[in-house]
Design brief:
Layout: E1 23-30, E2 47-48, E3 51-52, H1 53-63, E4 69-74, H2 79-89, E5 94-99, H3 104-115, E6 120-126, H4 134-143, E7 149-155, E8 162-163, E9 169-171, E10 179-188, H5 189-199, H6 210-217, E11 223-227, H7 238-252, H8 260-268, E12 272-276, H9 281-292, E13 296-300, H10 302-305, H11 312-326, E14 331-334, H12 349-377, E15 380-384, H13 397-417, E16 423-429, E17 432-433, H14 435-441, E18 450-451, H15 452-463, E19 471-474, H16 490-494
Helix pairs in contact: 5-6, 9-15, 11-12, 12-13
Length: 503
């Protein structure tokens, strides 16, 4: 629809006084039922990256300093589900969770009634756009100082065609003038109320979004468009679930870093960290870093403490040792793992059994034994995968399979343990200079490898974050120095974390 900027005779008069809203309200539209996803629950309740989609969305507006109040319009019959999510997450800005209408327009009218009278900034946002950024929210609110209506959109990367009833092209609009609409859509309350008041008298009224209502019934009102983002997708179809999950993974790769030594010390002092596989490589460096920042760290390994991660009794004894010494366990880190190369058909049963048990049964055993301790502290379990989890590699098929299994384990446990307040994440480092890697692949150019200390530092950032259900990629920054790691032999080398091997 093309907007006519010529003022209509009945267009709303320009406000003679500066806009002075009493507050800014975010209205989260969560009325979808998930039919296109083929789900038995509304799509906004589907979990992505360890949390319901609506929780991710609400968290953005809860954290936005520009937002004073949040009202949730929920699908019929699921208001208690949304109320539970709000209560568990501790969202203080959410003032109401109410049932939405049968249509988008009905839901907007209900929302306007819930907001009440007075001059208010109102942002309408789809609950199933969980990747909306703080920047978009801020720019929408700021634009309302100059404009009465604001939309969010991105340029169309595709050529748009118009067709007739026979599916034949009738027009190809100039792509440079086209945008793909997103949310939020923001309004001065008087404008959106007036647009809907006028729409009520139109028997043919039907609109898919609120800016369309303003465009049609208040044609003299400029609608400002601010830049959206490619990541601000709407979860509508099954493929969107996978895309959103991957986008959360990519976003999680940029874990906010604490400022300086003092910041890490404040976060880690008094915490107890148990590291399985903590004698060499990443586990060793993480142990040393965490101790430097004041944490009490208990490293366990096969070579130094006789701890076999696949043995429940060994894991139980290790956790008991740490707990009895400090009275708490805040984080459990599993860097233990082995890499055995060779064609599957040629691998002996003893080797296969050892690889599967250490790389997968071990983390599962540790997870089960750690939960009671982590429940007490609302702590975190941290696992490690490698880039081979996305695609199996020839000559280390079982290794690749176990790394993929750990990613699935991370995501599943994040869901299972959310009710306990326990977080579960997985670090995915690129090729890393560790003794195990040197043993398996020989000497490699140092500038191509990530340092174990860099992975350890990134791991600490994850541990002190609020992330859960994430696969965090760790990549080497240009010019980063690489720590030379001497090759180890035998059991020592096989205990190291198999870090992000790219074949």
């Amino acid at each position: 629809m093309t907007q006519d900027r010529t003022p209509a005779p009945d267009a709303a008069p320009a406000s003679p006084a500066p806009w002075r809203p009493s507050r800014t309200v975010a209205v989260i539209l969560a009325g979808g039922t998930g039919t296109r996803l083929g789900l038995g629950i509304p799509k906004q309740l589907l979990k992505i990256a360890g949390k319901p989609i609506i929780e991710h969305t609400l968290a953005v507006f809860e954290a936005a300093p520009e937002i004073d109040e949040i009202i949730v319009l929920m699908a019929a019959g699921h208001v208690p589900d949304a109320e539970r999510i709000v209560a568990n997450a501790g969202f203080r800005k959410v003032s109401k969770v109410i049932e939405g209408g049968d249509t988008r327009n009905d839901t907007t009218r209900i929302a306007l009634d819930a907001v009440g009278e007075g001059d208010v900034n109102i942002l309408f946002h789809d609950a199933v756009r969980p990747l909306v950024s703080a920047r978009i929210v801020r720019e929408c609110v700021n634009a309302l100082w100059s404009y009465s209506a604001v939309d969010v959109a991105i340029p169309s990367a595709d050529t748009i065609i118009q067709v007739d009833q026979d599916e034949c092209i009738t027009d190809i609009p100039v792509r440079a003038t086209l945008r793909r609409g997103q949310t939020p859509q923001a309004f001065r309350s008087g404008i959106i109320r007036e647009a809907y008041r006028r729409a009520e008298g139109d028997p043919d009224f039907a609109a898919t979004d609120d800016c369309g209502v303003v465009l049609r019934y208040l044609p003299g009102t400029p609608i400002k468009v601010i830049d959206g983002s490619d990541e601000n997708i709407k979860v509508t179809h099954p493929v969107d679930v996978h895309l959103a999950d991957k986008l959360f993974q990519l976003a999680a790769a940029q874990v906010p870093k604490v400022s300086g030594h003092r910041g890490y010390t404040e976060e880690l002092t008094g915490r107890t960290i148990v590291v399985f596989g903590g004698s060499y490589g990443i586990g060793h460096d993480l142990t040393e870093l965490a101790r430097r920042y004041g944490a009490q760290v208990f490293p366990f390994s096969r070579s130094t403490t006789g701890t076999h991660v696949e043995r429940a009794e060994d894991v139980s004894a290790a956790l008991k040792t740490a707990f009895e010494a400090t009275g708490r366990i805040d984080h459990v880190v599993v860097t233990a793992g082995i890499l055995e190369k060779g064609a599957l058909a040629e691998m002996d049963e003893e080797t296969m059994d050892r690889l599967l048990h250490v790389n997968f049964v071990g983390p599962v055993t540790i997870a089960r034994q750690s939960l009671p301790y982590l429940q007490q502290t609302k702590g975190q379990l941290l696992l490690y995968t490698s880039s081979s989890y996305t695609r199996g590699r020839a000559r280390y098929a079982l290794y690749s399979a176990t790394k993929a299994a750990l990613v699935n384990l991370t995501q599943a446990l994040a869901d299972e343990w959310a009710e306990f307040g326990v977080r579960v994440n997985c670090v995915n480092p690129e090729r890393t200079a560790t003794p195990m890697r040197t043993k398996a692949f020989g000497e490699e150019p140092e500038h191509t490898l990530l340092s174990a200390e860099a992975v350890a530092q990134a791991s600490l950032d994850v541990l002190i974050s609020e992330l859960t259900g994430q696969v965090i990629d760790v990549r080497r920054a240009p010019g980063e120095p690489v720590v030379a790691v001497p090759a180890q032999s035998g059991a020592q080398a096989s205990e190291q974390m198999p870090t992000g091997i790219d074949a």
